Amino acid sequence: MNRIRQPRDVEPRFFGLAPTQASFEGAVATAMFREMLRIRRVEERIGERYAEQEMRCPTHLCIGQEAPSAAVCAHLRPQDLVFSNHRSHGHYLAKGANLNAMIAELYGRATGCAAGKGGSQHLIDLDAGFMGSAPILASTISVGVGAAWAAKLDGRDEVSAIFFGDGATEEGTFHEAMNYASVACLPVVFVCENNLYSVHSELDIRQPPRPVAALAPAHGMRAAVVDGNDVEAVWKAAGTAVAHAILGEGPTLIECVTYRWREHCGPNEDLNLGYRSIDEFSQWQQDDPLERSRSAFLAAGWLNENVISTMEQEISEELDSAFDFAIQSPFPDPRELATHVFPDPS
What we know:
This protein is α/β, with parallel strands linked by helices and 346 residues long. It has one domain (7-330): 3-Layer(aba) Sandwich (Rossmann fold). It is built from 10 helices and 9 strands. It has helices at residues 26-50, 66-73, 89-94, 99-106, 139-154, 172-183, 231-246, 278-286, 289-300, 305-328; strands at 13-15, 81-84, 130-133, 160-165, 188-194, 197-198, 201-202, 222-227, 252-257. The strands form 2 sheets. Strands 1-8-9-5-4-2-3 form a 7-stranded mixed beta sheet, with helices on both faces.
């Protein structure tokens, strides 16, 4: 484990990308904190309720990784599109998709965003521009690039933001998609949430000693590697990347070095498995992106405890309502099993 990065030991590096100098303060900081808080509380509630065995789909929680979702999606417009992976809840929520429909989907109900047939790994909300998530490693990267190509051909003002993990960068489709996005100068923002592990395999045994972001110049594009637990750093890099895409200046890769707290798949801790040490885990917990932001924003006067208390109450009530909605919703009719299998010919 010689190369596992320690918290706040991420050296920012920029490959042809100058992060935005836009001011990160006041309303922006407050909105970022609230989004991260909401994602955290949703994930925690799912973890608490999962043991009831009413949610029967596999679920991958993003506790500890909230900053990239909040910071990147903050720059996306309603017409911009998000493509996600198996650890998708944060991306879905930050893009403004429907919480009731998400929780209902986890419960396999007909009111779920995929009609109760997809579960946690197949979230979708086309109205919010959340184009879907999928468990097959790197599978949505080429789809997101294809959507950006279609938008460019049709003259539509759209940006594709594609979220994936460090493991996905070891798949051929990642490099093929990066190459074509660069060749065609497509409006794409590639967001690698590098949480240092692919399931239980650490980064050090899978990749050579270089940032994932260093792959971008080989494909002729800009890139940055930033502290993925620093919401301001991610927000600034994402702001520049999205601006380049909107202006027709091509794709960017942002590597956000972060850390997941829970097991790869499921709601529990997994330190008993021995693939990561308790000391490493404790250090990353102390670098909690939510608590870092809370402390910094309180000190700056952008937040106060009354505002945070109000946020907590609002989010708790929203969650109560979403879980009630899901539990009270009907299961899909068995006849629905064969629907949405093939394209509608009409």
